[in-house]
Amino acid sequence: MWHEDFEFQGYTLQLGQHGLVIESGSELEPAVSVQGDGQAISDAKIFVSLLNSDGEKTLAEAQQAIFEPATKEEPAHYAQAFLMVPPDAKKVTIRYQIDFADGSTTTRDILVQTESHAH
Question: What are phi and psi of 80, to 5 degrees?
């Protein structure tokens, strides 16, 4: 699921996560798509971390995402960086840091609602 699309220095980026629901007390797998001139960019370095709802306290340290080439099921994107959502979290901030091969960088924070897996 994508949360945000934006342009940065000629690149088109999509920020989101695998799965439709973010459950407290379970792992979250952020996903990032980076394109330039309509082609997937595979040489960026993507780091994702998890912060509290106001973005001031780190809940899960930054992990580097891995580039996954396009398949029949999914477009090319970066993923496989897993962040543990605390069991009591109602909202969390996913921080996406994108470092491009040309030395430019951008960071975006996205506040997301979590759902309790306790029924």
Answer: 65, 25
- Distance separating alpha carbons of residues 112 and 16, to the nearest angstrom: 10
- Measured CA to CA, the distance from residue 104 to residue 119 in angstroms comes to 45
Q: What is the CATH number of domain 2-116?
A: 2.60.40.1930
State the chain's mean pLDDT as an integer.
Answer: 95
Q: What Å distances lie between residue 119 and 10, 16, 23, CA to CA?
A: 45, 25, 12
Paired residues of 61 in beta bridges: none
CA atoms of 31 and 39, how far apart (whole Å)? 17
75 contact partners, CB below 8 Å, separation of at least 6: 33, 40
- Model confidence over 19-36: pLDDT tens digits? 889 999 999 999 999 999
Is the predicted pLDDT of residue 119 greater than 60, yes or no?
Answer: no
How far apart CA 41 and CA 21 sit, in angstroms, is 27
Among residues 12, 1, 15, the alpha carbon closest in space to that of 48 is found at 15
